[in-house]
Amino acid sequence: MSINLSTLPANEKNKIELDKQASFLVWKLREAKAVPDEIDQQAAKIVDDAEKASFLESVDKYKRVMGVA
Question: What's the number of domains the chain is made of?
């Protein structure tokens, strides 16, 4: 089953993008290419509270998956 992401509503596309950013930031943290403050800085840039909560949930998810404390 394939899904065309371009047909999703804008809020769903943004949620996917925030999830990708969370994954990348946690990976950088694991590889010692970033500091934990970068996650806080990225979260501070997100204005919408629901999007910020989604981003932080994704960060927690990827920290568990990647074994980052």
Answer: 1
